[in-house]
Amino acid sequence: MQFKRINVVTPDNIYLADVVIKGNKISKIKKISNKPAASAKYMMPGFIDSHTHGGYGWDFNSLARNDLKKAKDYLNNLGSEGVTTVIGTTVTCSIKDLYAISKNWKKFNALDKEGLVKGWYIEGPFISKEKKGAHDETLICQINTKVLDTIKRENKFIKILAVAPEIKNNLELIKKVSKDYVVAIGHSACSADLALESLVNGASRIVHLYNQTSKFDHRNPGIVNMAFLDTPMNCELVSDGFHVNKLVLKNTYDIIKPDRIIIITDSLSCKGLPKGDYMLGTLNIHKFDDIARLKDDNTIAGSVKPYIEHLHTFLEATHCSLCELTKMSSYNAAKNLKLDNKLGIIKENYLADFVIVDSKLNLYETYKNGKLIYKK
Question: DSSP character for 91?
């Protein structure tokens, strides 16, 4: 398969080229010009949604019940969002359910023929009750190394672990678990100093910045203050326009810069479904047109917008370049997850995971492992 005269988007530049795909990899890139052609479409790396609970009637907490009924619907719809790689995320559940999810994940992998899902993001229960958000407070606890060691043995894929460092012993345990897990601090009321200590101990990302984190404060600096420092800490950002105001998206883009932002959806099972009542783990939620909230206290739950719409919102708010958007939608996540030797960039011998878009980021085609999985 060959793409003639396509504008190739990298994290650093855009150039016109012919691109040859053989099997599941990018075989050859023949540069035609160092500048893009106005008449040509653009090839970008496939989007990596590294924090998503699910969509289209299914979520990863369903694995606790061995429920795979709508898992294929979820997988089959990812291409329409431009997503080619996912880290499946679970909300706070019981220790018993964590074990069940771990055991049943292999059955899910058997359905995922193209390998869209690369790992598991355990967003709870090792978080703060004070910053629980849409998590069941009764199930929150401190890090349980026995559980994590079991999960490590049973599953060899990528694992992200959300941690509130201020909970008893969690800061010390971050150093231990970061050998096997990508540690993300969040759902936390910790101070900026404690967040910095977490970074030193091995944490490498912040869970959905601004949402259920200690705020920017001029006297008692929190996680947001720490995020604004020039450190290697990656910052997840839900850019649906509801979780983070568009002005704040622009502030974040200006202050943190594109090299450390990872755009995520934090999407729920009701993404792609009609308005109505649904479940998030053990909690009742209601989906409105473009947002979901807990029924009990109106707290915003995860997002219900597809990934491509998050990128459109971010583009509208910041007027960033496609190169910068490539970093935030793919390359940064691949690097954080140690997948940047095969994903996150259009490059020879890398996996042929890419999207075809126009200059305004309208999505035309999505390819996974060199196979067309979505066409407008």
Answer: -
- Average confidence score pLDDT of the chain: 96
Q: Tell which residue, 265, 257, 268, 266, has the closest CA to residue 233.
A: 257
The C-alpha atoms of residue 376 and residue 362 are separated, in whole angstroms, by 10
Q: 183 φ, ψ to 5°?
A: -95, 130
Q: Give the Å distances, CA to CA, from 245 to 211, 289, 313.
A: 11, 17, 10
Query: Cα–Cα distance between 79 and 76 in angstroms, integer?
Result: 7
Cβ distance 185 to 195 under 8 Å?
A: yes
Which pTM does this prediction carry? 0.97
Q: Where are the alpha helices (DSSP H) in 49-94?
A: 71-77
AA identity, residue 238? V
Percentage of the chain modeled with pLDDT above 70: 100
CA distance 56 to 38: 36
Which residue carries 């650093």 as its tokens? 12
Which residues touch 149 (CB under 8 Å, ≥6 apart)?
A: none
Q: What is the CA radius of gyration of the chain?
A: 20
Beta carbons of 90 and 60 less than 8 angstroms apart: yes
Question: Residues 328-341: pLDDT tens digits?
Answer: 999 999 999 999 99
Specify the pLDDT at position 297: 86
**The pLDDT of residue 298:** 84
Residue with token string 């936390």: 188
pLDDT at 296: 84
